[in-house]
Amino acid sequence: MPTLRGLEALRAFVETGTVSRAAQRLGRTQPQVGRLLTALEDELGFQLFDRQHKRLSLTAEGREFYKHGERLLQGHDGLERFAAQLRRGDRHHVRVFAAPHVTQAIVIDAVSDLSRRHPSFAASVNSRVRIDIDSWLGQEHFDLGITVLPVSHAGFETEEFIRVEAVAAMAPDHPLAVREVVTVKDLAATSFIATHRRSLVQQQIERQAVEAGVVLSSRFETQSGMIACQLAERGLGCCVADPFVARSSGTPALVFRPFKPAIDLPYAFVFPAWQSRSRLTRELAAEISGCARTLWSVIARSFGEPGSTIP
User: How far apart are the first and last CA of the chain?
Assistant: First the structure.
């Protein structure tokens, strides 16, 4: 098991670029940091660094290890912050984790509204992408998480608070903007902006394409739903997006249309099962739920489709 000091030395080296600057950050001497890095390499049993001309650089294995080690350090940082809050007697602090688009579209407004009602309320709001949920659930310390289901992780309780549907998003002058409903066959007949193959929406789009016997042509691709919406606003194609992603992408000119068959996106709160929920945690969850329902109602009304209501 690598030591915490060794991991901290590795992080300081990666973030500063040299052993000398890492030593300055950590308040240690350069030889001390060098010994910590060498000891870490010895503990792991594989080469973390290439050593050329008295300079260190990460090997491919070193880069891969650092990705995992950094998540462990983030968890440790969060635990230290929580311990500091307990020492201060701070019982009004809520630690929130959510995907960046959820934070921008919903959480910030909810935190702002709750803070006006409770002057003592404090929060730490951090973001993690949905694809990495298994990592942050296991290693982060939080009171309230927000994600799209499914989640299967021992030790956590989930409560669905809203179910939205993915929307077709495009520029106002896009050929599909005149449609009341967009289907996968419509996407196949135009330029479709594809997103990450591991995303829930993209997986459902590809499944529908196979079932419909059509081939999607993607001139533009991106791993980010927000970037897909930005490309769509510039007339480069049509994308299918989580509506909260679309609304947080900084694309006010986008036109939304219902996508059918519907791709359901059930949003849920995630609570650590081993700790009780504070009153402010429950109030913030209720505030977030209300903000989400209001936003989805606005998006659904923009469809112009009778019967578009909050699920």
Answer: 48
